[in-house]
Amino acid sequence: MSAEPALHGTAAPVRPVGRAWTARFALVWLGMWAAQLAPVQLLLPLQLEDLDPVHKVRDFGLVNGVAGLAALVALPVFGALCDRTRSRWGRRRVWVAGGVIGYAVGLLLTGAAGSWVAVGGAWLVAQLGMYAAMAGLTATIADQVPSAQRGTVSAAIYGPQAIGIVVGLGLVTAVGTGAGLAYAALAGLLLVTAVPWLLRARDGEPGPGGRPGSLAGALRATWQAPWAHPDYAWAFGGRLLVNLGNALGTTYLLYFLTDGLRRPDPEASLLVLTLVYLAATVAATWGGGVLSDRTGRRRVFVAAAAGLQALACAVLVVVPSWSSALVAGVLLGAGYGAYTSVDQALVTEVLPDADAAAAELGVMNVAAVAPQALAPLLAALVIASLGGYGVLFSLAGACTVLGAVSVARIRSVP
Fold first, then answer.
1. Which of 31, 159, 293, 362 is in Cβ range 3.0-4.6 Å of 285 for a Cys bridge?
2. Helix/strand/coil (H, E, C) string of 305-329?
3. Domains in the chain: how many in total?
């Protein structure tokens, strides 16, 4: 097998990052995920049910669908702009700071919204802030983390994702006096967790590189990269499909527990299921990332992780019950946890140009973010018109299997 040309541009980092650096990096992601996932899993469904109970499924799909469509444009554009930013505070830190502030403002506006349309507009503002912060944070791995640490450091992105769900749900449950205060609490958490990173973050000036000087030229080169670098395209396809499968399997859990399993207290059941998912995800995220770094292998971990997620979906299809949901939570958490940390390390190793890391990772981030936003719209169609939750979970499992096949086509990474 012939490997693709090595990544060109700025030299790859060789100096290891320390534990304090990794802890601050994980903390800012904890706040980001809590502010993202608590609304998606609980606040937005409940808010839309109060505002428009008859069309709650449609509204939820549209609100998230608009944010997903925005990601297709915003993530690559923000990444390209981040690569070209020049300031006394660095290029990555500026985008993280601006994104976090915009994210917090969007959360406050969402809590104050009085119609489902207003909720959609405010949530879009919040998501644009998140995309801006992601542009700076994910590029930092390619800028500062050597290849042998990227699985472990990538776990600092996705380990906090699972913890963030519980922290966010616990926080909004604790305040429990209305949507406005719940969103404000999440905004406050987001700002607090970002401060340590912003105070200590340092990033150097970009190398001279050979990228086009204009934004339009940079974006054109970034979108053309998959044609010239097939491994970059296969990695994008694998990430898109596995994240879509996971999103289809988790987005409507509250409604599945309410309408599918008829749980007497679906909100409490969602919290229990989330805790199960959390334990499996955290263990697999850190374990998968560390083992991948030590063995130097990426693809086998990604394939096994996708298989676990497909098995979780099969359990829910064959035996749709509360007990099977708990088993599926363990399998899905373990599979998704191992997948996220190793896949993030993998994609940083197939980028065509080190001087365009934020732009090229912006395209990869589309494959991670867009499914989370677009899955509710697709899932709503499946539930309403194609056979309900059994068909939905079958589709989710098929997507993860196809994602594993796509990753298997990569040749430049073991």
1. 159
2. HHHHHHHHHHHHHHCCCHHHHHHHH
3. 1
